[in-house]
Structure formats: structure tokens, C-alpha cells
UniProtKB/TrEMBL annotation:
Species of the source: Paludisphaera borealis
Span of the signal peptide: none
PANTHER family: CHEMORECEPTOR GLUTAMINE DEAMIDASE CHED-RELATED
Name of this protein: Probable chemoreceptor glutamine deamidase CheD
Encoding gene, per UniProt annotation: cheD
Domain of life: Bacteria
Assigned keywords, A-Z: Chemotaxis, Hydrolase, Receptor
């Protein structure tokens, strides 16, 4: 986990990690089949981004940022610390990534589509936590660059060969 050390910082989130920052900072990552989970408090202008690699930890505790079921609670805990215990009911989510980076044949086991499995796990966890998903750019077959601007809550998604999207 990373907390932006100073104003106007840009924090890069590595695979299986997360970061939290207040305004004015940017948090960015590069995604393929991984899902980027952005949680943001509009009033406080504090946000975080988790780079989720796999849907379930299956009891593993050594890399909490790697799995949806451990990364999202860890991200929320750090946001709650940054918001001094006031994150409940204030966070909204934006999601990006979850691409199918490899061609799978029609007879392939659906669990082999890691991007789709990550999407489903993240959406279920956020639903269970009652955190609304207000925007998403999921699926497809290419990676994405994702950047959260904590000053505005705007998430910019750049996909090779396509126009930039704002979530």
C-alpha cells in the first residue's frame, strides 16, 4: 500500500498493490486481465486504486493486494484511516480492466477467462459491501492505462487504438 507523500504527486500502482491519496494527486496503473478498483469519496476528495490480479485468495495472506477478496477490504481500511473513520457510506466505485488477454476456444473452461472471473468477484464484493459502482470500462481484449485524479474523481482510461474515455 502506498499513501501519496505530498500534494500533486503521481503514484504508480504496481501489479497486486494499492494506493490511497488525497487531492491534488493522481493514481495510475496499467491493466490487462487484472481489474482496477477505484474507490473515491467526493466530499473529502480522497481516493484509492487497487490493482486486483485474481478473484480469490483461498486463505493466502502474504499478498493482500493481489486478490479481490483481500485487496478491496485493505483499500477500504486505508481509505478509512485517511478519512479518520468516516468512509462508511461515502465511497463510490469505478472499475476498469478485466480483459480477456488470451484467445480461448469455445470449449475452454470458463474459469480460464481470468479477466471475467476478476470482474465478477470485484462486482460481488462491492455489492456485498453496498458500495455503488457508478462507472465501468470492463472486458474486451486489450489492456488499459487507468488514472484517477483525486481532485475531481475523474478516471481516465486509455486503451491502445481507441479514444480516451472518462469514467
Amino acid at each position: 500500500m502506498t499513501i501519496a507523500p505530498d500534494a500533486a504527486a503521481t503514484v504508480s500502482v504496481a501489479i497486486g498493490q494499492w494506493a490511497v491519496a488525497g487531492s491534488p494527486s493522481k493514481i495510475r496503473t496499467l491493466l490487462g486481465s487484472c481489474v482496477g478498483v477505484v474507490l473515491y469519496d467526493r466530499g473529502a476528495r480522497v481516493g484509492g486504486l487497487a490493482h486486483v490480479v485474481l478473484p480469490r485468495s483461498r486463505g493466502a495472506v502474504d499478498h493482500p493486494g493481489k486478490y479481490a477478496d483481500t485487496a478491496i477490504p485493505a483499500l477500504i481500511a486505508d481509505l478509512d484511516r485517511a478519512l479518520r473513520g468516516k468512509s462508511a457510506g461515502r465511497l463510490v466505485a469505478k472499475l476498469a480492466g478485466g480483459a480477456s488477454m488470451f484467445t480461448l476456444g469455445p470449449s475452454a473452461n470458463p474459469t480460464m477467462n481470468i479477466g471475467r472471473s476478476n470482474q465478477e468477484a470485484v462486482e460481488q464484493i462491492l455489492a456485498d459491501l453496498r458500495i455503488p459502482i457508478i462507472a465501468r470500462d470492463l472486458g474486451g481484449e486489450t489492456g488499459r492505462h487507468v488514472t484517477l485524479d483525486t481532485a475531481t474523481g475523474l478516471v481516465v482510461v486509455r486503451t491502445p487504438g481507441a479514444d480516451e474515455k472518462e469514467l
